Automatic annotation (TrEMBL):
Record flagged with keyword Hydrolase: yes
Lineage, opening ranks: Eukaryota, Viridiplantae, Streptophyta, Embryophyta, Tracheophyta
Domain Glycosyl hydrolase family 32 N-terminal: 134-377
Organism, scientific name: Linum tenue
SUPFAM superfamilies xref list: Arabinanase/levansucrase/invertase, Concanavalin A-like lectins/glucanases
Name of protein: beta-fructofuranosidase
Keywords: Glycosidase, Hydrolase, Vacuole, Zymogen
Length: 535
């Protein structure tokens, strides 16, 4: 059987507009220079949308996408070591005590103390590890995004940040703005832990824009005795498009842990939504022993609050819920909704990060704004699992999957098209069963800078039998495990001999005479950087 395929390849280019700081270069400037001396200009106009091409496959195949690997680029950054070099033996390598991740060189650690050596690492040696397109600060520790909002032509993000070192601690709110969600400008710190109610950290929070134009920023503060309380901050000058200065409300803290809730189990308020009674609702993550719960408060002025007598949702055995989120999505449509939207044609998504497992979960359900009750559409499935990462992602659109009514579809914002350098479109490529077809796209680097590819492909499979098969319904077995309908996909990060590669593939399984279940899989067993971790 032969297969015809069509594929599009679009490598984004490195940001050609240095006034909008690309993180790969941001380490060259101190924070004060980036925040003050970088001019604020309108971003470049978005590039023309690329031509849409699909990839249609109807038989068994795995095909190669060029010979792309970044391992060569990384190896070139390693400092040359000669056997006779006079390496430093003191002081020992920097580590957590000095505020950075341990950077000792295992190759120069001897069994005896006097044989142990350290290597004089420099920041320049690690610049290749910085992301090219995702937002990150110049240096040091960063974790969760907080309080995103749009104000007077600028997108704002705040993030938990340690300005002093590369380990968690001294959590402060960093601040960055963008015109297009792609090119970000670092601004001075927004909130610092300088009051008794947040002296141990300015933790996660959310922004709510009131119809009167005011912005209410609720955030969790950790007190001197590590009690978690909720605090309120406002922009010092709401007319400032960059919202450079923030003021903490003198009434702080505005919320304390309620009776029955542990002092360390009360954090991460959501963006508020307006109920039919004219009062705002705010959800906060917590737990009762091992029962994970979402608390909901009502407020009129964001200073005085009333706790509802029931949970928005709870799941036994899940432990502490943190970074809770609650938002509406349209049943039919791709437009975002106001946080307060409710009623016919609207579902609500509840998302929580489980502190015990460090995994995110979300579920789709129906919200009754009068009774303040949320019911999951599938009570037997209390959440789809997501992995947690410590990097700000490319901003994405989130819509409800109209086909399933239960899943969320996420896609990078269309502004990312402004990073495109060029595109390749392959059509009428014949792919025989079990064959590997290289698609030549030129060099993997541009001016010694590795290019990153986005690959858009569509697959269409014809049912070839009229009955259910007995094939395994999973990604087990990797790309080498053959089935009646696959696998098919791409070989990425491949070398010329195909001894080094990562398979990204689809595995359709015919579950009935007229239905197919498709699994989306990766196989890294032939990727040299892959390390199996059973945890």
């Amino acid at each position: 059987m032969e297969t015809r395929s069509t594929a599009a390849f679009d490598p984004p280019t490195i940001n050609p507009y240095p006034l909008f700081l690309n993180p790969i270069f941001s380490f060259l400037l101190p924070l004060s220079q980036m925040a003050v001396e970088t001019p604020l200009l309108d971003p470049p106009p978005p590039a023309t949308r690329r031509q849409q091409c699909g990839l249609i496959l109807s038989s068994l195949l795995i095909f190669s996408v060029g010979l792309l690997t970044f391992s060569g680029h990384r190896s070139q950054q390693s400092p040359p070591i000669s056997p006779g070099a006079d390496h430093h033996r003191t002081p020992p390598a920097r580590g957590v005590r000095e505020g950075v991740s341990a950077k000792s060189s295992p190759g120069f650690v001897g069994e005896e103390e006097e044989e142990r050596v350290s290597y004089n690492w420099t920041n320049a040696m690690f610049t290749w590890q910085r992301t090219a397109y995702h937002f990150q600060p110049q240096r040091n520790w960063m974790n969760g995004c907080a309080g995103p909002l749009y104000h007077k032509g600028w997108y704002h993000i705040f993030y938990q940040y340690n300005p002093d070192s590369a380990v968690w601690g001294n959590i402060t709110w960093g601040h960055a703005v963008s015109r297009d969600l792609i090119h970000w400008l670092l601004l001075p710190l927004a909130l610092v832990p300088d009051r008794w109610y947040d002296v141990n950290g300015v933790w996660t929070g959310s922004a709510t824009r009131h119809p009167d134009g005011n912005i209410y920023m609720l955030y969790t503060g950790s007190t001197g005795n590590l009690t978690q309380v909720q605090n309120l901050a406002h922009p010092a000058d709401p007319s400032d498009p960059l919202l450079l200065n923030w003021v903490k409300n003198p009434a702080n803290p505005v919320l304390l842990p309620p009776p029955g809730i542990g002092p360390k189990d009360f954090r991460d308020p959501t963006t508020a939504w307006l109920g039919p009674d004219g009062l705002w609702r705010v959800a906060i993550g917590s737990r009762m022993e091992k029962l994970g719960i979402t608390l909901v408060y009502k407020t009129r002025d964001f200073l005085s609050y009333e706790l509802l007598d029931h949970y928005l949702h709870s799941v036994p055995g899940t432990g502490m819920w943190e970074c809770v989120d609650f938002f509406p999505v349209a049943v039919n449509g791709t437009k975002g909704l106001d946080t307060s939207a409710a009623g016919e044609g609207i579902k609500h998504v509840l998302k929580a990060s489980l502190d015990d497992t460090k995994l995110d979960h979300f579920a789709v359900g129906t919200y009754d704004p009068v009774e303040d009750l949320w019911t999951p559409d599938d009570p037997k499935n209390d959440g789809t699992e997501l992995e947690v990462v410590k990097l700000q992602t490319i901003p994405r659109t989130v819509v409800l999957d109209g086909r399933t009514g239960a899943d969320l579809l996420q896609w990078p914002v269309e502004e990312i098209e402004s990073l495109r350098l060029r595109s390749y479109c392959f059509e009428d490529v014949l792919v025989g069963p079990g064959s590997v077809v290289p698609l030549h796209i030129g060099s993997a680097t541009q001016n010694s800078i590795p290019l990153q590819l986005d690959i858009m492909a569509e697959f269409e499979v014809e049912l070839i039998s009229g009955k259910k098969t007995d094939e395994e319904n999973s990604c087990d077995g990797g790309a080498a495990e053959r089935s009646s309908l696959g696998p098919f996909g791409i070989l990425a990060l491949a070398d010329a001999s195909l001894s080094e590669l990562t398979s990204v593939f689809f595995r359709p399984v015919q579950t009935s005479a007229d239905a197919v279940t498709t699994y989306f899989c990766t196989d890294q067993t032939r990727f040299s950087k892959f390390t199996f971790d059973p945890l």
